[in-house]
UniProtKB/TrEMBL annotation:
It comes from the Eukaryota. SMART domains: TPR. This is Kinesin light chain. Pfam families: TPR_10 (PF13374), TPR_12 (PF13424). The keyword Repeat applies. It comes from Spumella elongata. The keyword Repeat applies.
């Protein structure tokens, strides 16, 4: 139906009409949900081609978004270098469109996306820089305790774990925990259970076993508070093994 609509719009309104572009966007988004990444990539490239014919090289908010979507589509087919190129084009144009780009959530999102691509290409140092830049922007755009800050700090901690930087990873996990505790206080929360366990593992990695035990115990206690059936959960057994 969408493809039939595109064909009719092209005849009725012209190949580069907004109705053609928006319907191709709907096709690309639908293909994303149908696990057809190669066809989705082609659809996003078709949308971008229209944007570029209409707007040329002029910065445009809609083109920023489509460039990001093309990059994500390249990521979905494991073409990470090409994805990075489109992410960079999107980021550059974003700054051209919005003078206050340093304060926008989308700017941070793009830095996170680029970090993932750099990780896939084995450039962990640059990925770490991108994640840290994203955290700084999220804090301005959304506030210090927003979930986007917490999730990006989690990505930083996990990346540092793989870079054999256990002390820095510990600090990152503690930063994540601090956000969880400010947001949820002492209230039992599944996410806090997991982060307490991660902090404990980070203490283990720097040979601080007594502190690790304390956080394991906190995690285990909260796990029972969150899940009445904790005795039947794999994570409960994992925590006992860790302890």
């Amino acid at each position: 139906m969408y493809r039939k609509a595109v064909a009719i719009y092209e005849v009725a309104l012209g190949d580069d009409h907004e109705a053609v572009s928006s319907t191709l966007t709907a096709i690309a988004e639908l293909l994303d949900t149908m696990d057809q990444p190669q066809k989705a990539l082609q659809a996003w490239q078709d949308v971008l081609a229209i944007r570029q014919r209409v707007h040329g090289d002029a910065p445009h908010e809609g083109t920023v978004s489509v460039l990001n979507s093309v990059a994500l589509a390249f990521m979905a087919v494991d073409r990470y270098a090409e994805a990075l190129d489109y992410y960079q084009q999107s980021l550059t144009m974003l700054y051209d469109v919005f003078p206050t780009a340093e304060e926008l959530e989308m700017t941070a999102d793009l830095h996170c996306n680029m970090a993932v691509a750099y990780c896939q290409l084995g450039n962990k140092k640059t990925a770490l820089t991108m994640y840290r830049k994203a955290v700084a922007i999220y804090e301005v755009a959304l506030g210090d305790d927003h979930e986007a800050v917490s999730s990006t700090l989690t990505a930083i901690a996990e990346l540092l774990d793989t870079m054999d930087q256990p002390q820095k990873a510990l600090q990152a996990w503690q930063d994540v925990l601090a956000i969880r505790q400010r947001v949820h206080g002492d209230a039992p929360h599944e996410g806090t259970v997991s982060v307490l366990n991660s902090v404990a593992l980070a203490f283990m990695a720097v040979d601080r076993y007594a502190e690790a035990l304390d956080y394991y115990q906190q995690s285990l206690t909260m796990l029972y508070d969150v899940f009445p059936t904790a005795e039947e959960l794999e994570m409960t057994a994992d925590l006992h093994c860790n302890m």
